[in-house]
Amino acid sequence: MTQLEQLKRHLMPGHVYRRNDLKKWSNAVDRHLHGLLQDETLQKLAPGLYYYPKVSVFGKTPPEDEVLVRSFLKDDRFLLTSPNDYNKLGVGTTQLYNKRTVYNHKRHGDFKLGNRVFSFQRKPHFPKQVTPEFLLVDLVNNLETLAEDQPAVLKRVKEKVAAISVKKLRNAVSQYGSVKTKKLFGH
After folding, report:
1. pLDDT at residue 108, as a whole number
2. Cβ(89)–Cβ(160) under 8 Å?
């Protein structure tokens, strides 16, 4: 069995690997990476970031966003959202966006990972999971970036506030709201 074949035995479909992850199984990482890319065992997603695709009845599947972002950041402290999540709130947002936002503590900027662009935003605080209260605050924080009727959305946000937990909303506003958002919610 060749060293490349031995390396392949350690790889698992659906996993994203950094170049450094492969060092523990290879004494010639760059040569082996070249071979794995040539035989299409791995796909290059970004410099130093590779994916071993799962194969379904429809062909090779892309990596899950959370797996991809976790490997890129080398950290699991992040929150993956999208402006499309605002549509669930029932405040009049209807646009669909081809954008994923990653709140994290490390990176800032837009990065192309595979065929998708992720907007990384470094934030000191964000919840572990998306909540309706966080989404309302995030919506108001980012209202100028949305292709929506802003006054109409703000009016519906104010109506929505009456129907949710005041305590949870105040907490979300104080932790995650911009100065403008805090003023809007009366903080």
Report:
1. 97
2. yes
> Same domain for 93 and 50?
no
**First-residue to last-residue Cα distance in the chain:** 66
Question: What integer best gives the mean pLDDT of the chain?
Answer: 93
| 186 Ramachandran zone, left/alpha/beta (phi>0; psi -120 to 50) | left
0.90 exceeded by pTM: no
Domain co-membership, 21 together with 54: yes
As a whole-number percent, the residues of the chain with pLDDT over 90 amount to 82
- Write a three-state SS string for 99-113: CEEEEECCCCEEEEE
What's the distance, CA 97 to chain centroid?
14
d(CA 179, CA 78): 23
* CA dist., res. 46 & res. 1, Å (int): 30
